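Quick one: co-fold with iron/sulfur cluster.
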Amino acid sequence: MELRRKLARNMSRAITDFDMLEEGDRVMVAVSGGKDSYSLHALLTDLAKRAPINFTTLAVNIDQGHPGYPGHLLQQYMDDRGFPFRMVREDTYSIVTDKIPEGKTYCSLCSRLRRGILYRLATELGCTKIALGHHRDDAIVTLMLNLVFSGQLKAMPPKLLSDDGKHVVIRPLVYCAEEDLAAFASEEAFPILPCDLCGSQENLQRKAISRLLADLDARSPGARQNMLAALTNVRPSHLFDKDLWRSLGLHVAPPEEDAKGASTDLVSASSLLRGLS
Ligand code: SF4
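Sure, here it is.
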């Protein structure tokens, strides 16, 4: 119960900080059957009962056609508790296995296809928000991946308007630690659907960064929480982004000078990976 309260508190703080929910929202909760999305759904449906605004949830799962997909476990869970739920079958598995050469990771195409399906479903089902189960550790791994491999200082948006302006994606768990979600999922005995049915290789860069962060946290407890805090405490004037400086009214070279000062040659990802492994 303590854990549920802690997670609910962190989630409510993120929802308030980023104004994620409005009166009358119909929130489509993307439930993959993993620990994070089950937890998100459980916490959001709880919140819907006691929040000062009225909103409803609709859990949605996409059966992507992976061999042996045990979707019936999730269906049973939702039916037993009377939660509004839709399972939609869209065979993206055949598409990714057809398009991506063997040995390469499927995740990038798979996620893009899944996101497109979620957007379409949100429109069809009249949902005003799409809630995803990304948490604190997803955000800081993404921050580090962008920092180390892409030369960009960005994590993931807590709230995002889709490119076509039609959908609002929210990530209410961005302040929640993965270890708390894992403990909560095991406390609640959610019937977890395995995530390795697609046979895709885990992304090597993500794996290397996750190891690095776990190591950092072991040496300096609280490092991951401090990284989350850093995302909420940015000093733009202490960064070197000239556009950001301009937006603050600080004096920098005019935009036409930018091209001349090409400052940052990116080092190749493979050489960085060698250093991290
Ligand atoms: S692990 Fe499999 S199901 Fe998940 S995003 Fe990657 S390819 Fe898709």
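If it helps, The chain has a mean pLDDT of 92.
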